[in-house]
Amino acid sequence: MNDRAVTESIGVILLVAVLVVISVTIGSAALVQTNAVRDQGDATRINVKAEVTDSSVTLRHVGGPSLDTEDVLFRLSGDGGRVGPYTLAQIDNDEANGTYLDISDGSDTFDVGDEVTLNHSFTGYIDISLFDSESGDLVGGGELVYGPDGVDAEPSDEDDDGRVP
């Protein structure tokens, strides 16, 4: 009796099974990567202009969507420690050492033209962070680092995924 035909059939079935497993693995990996890219693109970003003095940092909203003042945290880190994080609502309600200037309609949103200021006593480099209170995502396009000369200085210590620790 000839059993060779059975061996060939089993070999073909095993090859097809291996190809199915490889295809499913590659397809799953591609879907996970696609979702990661989509999730990263959903983060809200605004444009801010920073003005740094010896005693304060002011951020002006110059472009992008309006954000709820309860959802945005402002933090300064420097050689003498850290100031904040405070929500913009806390700064507006005089619960922090700073000011909030709402030039629009007096709403509870951080709109284009609004300014927020935090006072500090740093003498060296200052890391300026404006981020979402729930997710920790930076909303100002990245951490701003200023040195004694007022120019961008050393790189920040933010996580690789853009989240603030």
Shape: elongated
Q: Can you count the beta strands?
A: 10
The quaternary organization reads as: single chain
Cα distance, first to last residue? 72 Å
Q: pLDDT average, as an integer?
A: 76
The chain-level structural class is alpha+beta
Beta-strand level of the residues, as a percent range? 25-35%
Biggest sheet strand line-up: 1-2-8-6
Main sheet properties: 4 strands, antiparallel
Mind telling me the C-alpha Rg? Answer: 26 Å
- Low-pLDDT windows of residues: 153-165
Q: Return the string of H and E elements.
A: HEEEEEHEEEEE
What is the count of helical runs? 2
Helix-residue proportion: 25-40%
Organism: Halorubrum pallidum
Keywords: Membrane, Transmembrane, Transmembrane helix
Region (Disordered): 141-165
Domain Archaeal Type IV pilin N-terminal: 4-78
